[in-house]
Design a protein that fits this description.
About 10% of the residues lie in helices and about 30% in strands. With about 200 residues, it is of the alpha+beta class.
Length: about 200
């Protein structure tokens, strides 16, 4: 285990390399922060964790403890080994981008998870081949029987965490979602930092 917790600042992204068998613990420090999460095969970033393929693999939209998270080539890349939260994570909604904020009425610059992914990968000297739909940790998107969705507040509490173990050498990217126009980061609509550490 790393000696100290690392931080993903509010509205920013971080990329972390994991060797097969290592795990990353992601901690919802304040209990209301959504973390858009991606994972890429370190040897070939064109293979990445895919929510569309995950739905078919799990026959569910909610991953649970013990579930393998699969790639667009239908291979396990991470395992959700531990989850201390109520287990509501979104696998349906795309990462926010400048087009999303424009539709919400934002007329100037706004930080986005899509940009955070690109910036985090660039810090490792890499580029994502695309922006896959992320695993939106702690994002609460209630889906009604008629298929409509709504924007709920996270159900987790401060200190809730997940542990994701690598099934192959990979790169995990986290973005503390900068959404502050709807309450997916809590009623205060105020993005906050989260913490993480790598576990051997």
């Amino acid at each position: 285990m790393t000696a100290e917790l690392e931080v993903v600042p509010a509205r920013r992204g971080r990329a972390v390399r994991l060797a097969r068998g290592q795990a990353i613990q992601i901690i919802n420090t304040h209990g209301q922060q959504v973390v858009d999460t991606w994972c890429f095969n370190a040897a070939d970033p064109a293979e990445f964790m895919s929510m569309e393929h995950l739905h078919a693999s799990l026959e569910s939209i909610f991953p649970a403890e013990g579930d393998a998270l699969v790639t667009n080539r239908r291979r396990p890349i991470l395992t959700l080994e531990r989850d201390t939260s109520p287990g509501r994570h979104d696998t349906v909604i795309a990462a926010c981008d400048r087009y999303r904020y424009a539709l919400l009425g934002c007329t100037g610059h706004h930080d986005t998870c899509t940009d955070n992914l690109a910036a985090a990968m660039a810090e490792l000297g890499l580029a994502a081949p695309e922006c896959p739909s992320p695993l939106n940790l702690w994002m609460n998107i209630p889906i009604a029987p008629d298929g409509t969705v709504s924007w709920g507040e996270p159900l987790c509490k401060p200190g809730d965490h997940v542990l994701l173990r690598a099934a192959m050498d990979c790169i995990v990217v986290m973005s503390t979602c900068p959404q502050d126009m709807i309450p997916i980061n809590g009623a205060a609509c105020t993005p906050t930092e989260v913490h993480y550490r790598v576990v051997d």
